Amino acid sequence: MSQTVTVDVLNEHAMSLLMDLERQQLIRVHESEKLSLSGTPHSFREKYKGAMSRQPLVLIESQLNELRNEWE
What we know:
Layout: H1 12-23, H2 44-48, H3 57-71
């Protein structure tokens, strides 16, 4: 039986446990999904870092209000 699940690894110890399970051939961690918490290019933070420029809170609130009003 094979079942695919997605997990969010919250700390280094959890990743270590997953790798131990893989060594025991109980699970398989796919290469494209092997992530380290040290900031590899595949991490969510690195992928989207710098995608948005810093803006004053007032401007962000104004933009959110505009978007909300468009839906009404």
